[in-house]
Amino acid sequence: MDAVTPATRSDTSEFIRRHPTIVIGGLLLIIITLAAILAPWIARDPIIFEPINRLKGPSAEFWLGTDALGRDVFARMVYGARISLIVGLSVAVITIIGGSVIGLLAGYFKAFDAIIMRLMDGIMAIPAILLAIALVALLGSSVTVVIIAIAIPEIPRVTRLVRAVVLSVRDLPFVEAARSNGTRVGKLLRRHILPSTIAPLIVQATYICASAILTEAGLSFLGAGTPPEIPTWGNMIAGNRLYLQIAPWTIFAPGICLALVVLAVNLLGDGLRDRLDPRISRGM
Known about the structure:
Number of helices: 13
Helix content: over 70%
Radius of gyration: 23 Å
Structural class: mainly alpha
CATH superfamily: MetI-like
Oligomer: single chain
Shape: flat
CATH class: Mainly Alpha
Strand content: under 5%
Number of domains: 1
Low-confidence stretches: 279-284
Number of strands: 0
CATH architecture: Orthogonal Bundle
Largest sheet: none
CATH topology: MetI-like fold
C-alpha cells in the first residue's frame, strides 16, 4: 500500500489551493527557523573580527560579504534570526497568556471590569516604543529586558480582544446552563468560555509576533535594544548604516531577512484568520 494515496494528494492540493497564504507563510518560517537552528553548522563565528577581510563583497568564501570589522554578514544574519524568532515567540506567548487571564477576569466579573480596563487604557496611552526605551534604560540592555519591554504594551490589546469575546458569550444559553448546574467559576471559564477565544487569539499571536520582531529591530537600531555585541538584524543595520554606499550588502541582507520574516508571519496570520473565521470559510 502506498504511503501517500491519491485521496491524500488531492486533499493536500485542495488545501494549498484554498489557503495559499498559510502554505507560503509557513514554508518561509520553516526555512528561516531551520537556518537559525542549524546556524552553528552552516555559518562561521558571527562575532570574530577579521580586519583583513573588512568590507569584502559577496564571494564563495563569504556568501553575503563582510562588514566593516571583517565579520561574516551571512553568519551574523543567520544568528540574528535566532534572536528575532526568540523575541517574537516569547512576546507572543507572554502577551497571549497574560492578556487572556486579565481579559477573562475583566469580561466575566463586572466588578473588576472598569478598574482593569482603565488600567489597560492607561498603558495603551503610552507609546509602545517610548515605554520600551524607558524600561531598557531603567533595567539595562539584554534580550530578556527587551522581551519584557515589548510585551507590556501588547498585553492591553490582547486583554481587550479576550474581554470582547467573553462579553459576547457570557450570557449565552450553554454558559447559563453550566452556571445553573453549579459549575465553579474556574471550571466555567476554562471549559466553556476560554475555548471561544482560541481562534482569535491564534490570529492575534501571529500579528504580535511580527510586531515584536519589528520593534526589537527598531530598538536595536536606536541603541536601546540588545547589546551591540549580540548579532541581531537591528544591530547589523545600525552598525553598517555609514557604509551603505560602499558596502550595501551589509544593510540589504538583514533588511531583506527582516522583511521576509514579517511577511511570512503576516501571511500565516491572514491565512489562519481566513481558515478559522467561519464567515470567511463559508464564502470560500
